[in-house]
Design a protein that fits this description.
It is a single chain. The chain is an alpha/beta fold. The chain is 35% helix and 13% strand. Strands 1-9-8-7-5-6-4-3-2 form a 9-stranded mixed sheet, with helices on both faces. It is globular and about 70 Å long.
Length: 498
Amino acid sequence: MMKPLPMLPLLSAWLSAVLVASIGTTSSTSSGSSVGTSVVRNALSDHLRHASIAPRGENILLPSRSLQSTSVEGTRECNAQIGLIGRDEVLAVLNILYSEGGTELVAYINGVLAPLLKYDVASYKICGACLDFDATSAASSVCEGYGSDALHSSLVLVPIDPDTGDVVQGSLRTSLLYHGTRIDVDDVATNTFPASLSEGLQELQASGDTSLIEALLGSMGEALPGLMHASLGNLAIVPDYLGYGASQPTHNRTYFIRQSYEQATLVSWYATQAWLSQASGGCSEMEGVVSMEGTSEGAYAALASSSLLNDMGVRILGLRLNVPVASPEAALVYMMVQYDGGLISPTKDNAGFTAFSPLSAWAYSQDLPLVANSGYANQTLLAAEWMVDDTFERNVPAWLESPDPIGVEEIVALMPPFAPDVFRPAMVQLARDAIAANSTTPCNTFADELVERGVDRLCEASLDNDLLELLASGVMYPTELCYSSGDTVAPAFQFTDD
């Protein structure tokens, strides 16, 4: 299994996520994830505020459609409340997170931040489908093809007036938070986010067992920043991607395929907008202003979706990309560097990372119209010997296909000693040739040889979903790249030369 991330740096990133809500944030690339009092103070100087007026809500549902109260067996019901977390509990979580941050930071949290945490936070599982909404012309293309009939779900955190018990009235700004790679398909916020924190906090305070901190906060995952944002008076949305949550029984996952993340974002945005109007009786609405954050796969999802929302006219206050991977072909190069160097292996405590290889290969081996190599059996990213229909141990699609994919431990147990063996050998050789040429872009470096090598359609699929050009062309909103200088899985040099 993968080693847990160090607690304090991970939680520092949680509080610093509020920084993207500041209008004055500038584009940057940062190393490490520690945060100081000045950063928190500057971020909160322009925190996400809701308007004092109560505008008329707008129903964007098509006349024949309604938000569906369905659920997957054994999971939470769609468009229903999960639970309620009090503002005092939100503050207690903050103090737990930053108990090691020094007396100045703790004092600042309790003296300055605490009075701003005015609202309780209700959690909901909100669901919808492309077919429910009248998408704008700027966004309609993401609802074409695979996933157009999927029931998407997302965790939505909502500010609740503690005096009335109602949704805060006004025009609410939004935080969109995207989760990193999940091999275990059930490990998403709509399933894991706790209905209540009272019991966990009481047990922690009574026992002093610090291992309970990770269990308590780990259940919230990428929704942690949203907890504070909602208590400040804003919405927070954590989308389940296609093939997770409500769409898990009916659709396979994709991985680093741009349109599927855009689709999940679009439906989550529209479904939350429609739900909020209904839940508040038209007294609350989404303002059309958003901050965005994602980690790993979530950073890719956030970057792709930011372009979509920007085209829709949504104002993006900031975009924070944590250990981002923005290029499928570059990701393969980095993967080969790690495995050829023996940095990741089934015998190490990072063995869980070996499960990323079959997921990556399978994503570009499904017969999906979203990718250019669809329908080309001789150009799947999975090697033919790992797609043997009548042998489960050699049938990666059977490991990962919905509705019953196997978990990370089972996958690791089935993997070959050298994980890249699951990839098509021609692509592995292309990546190694790029490494020898000191290049992270094999498809571009060897563009004249792709047909001869038999990987032209694979490279086309990869380049179609490459987001590096989006960053290079200069996004029109403040963007922060956050990485660790010691990271060997998603290194910073994919974006910078130093």
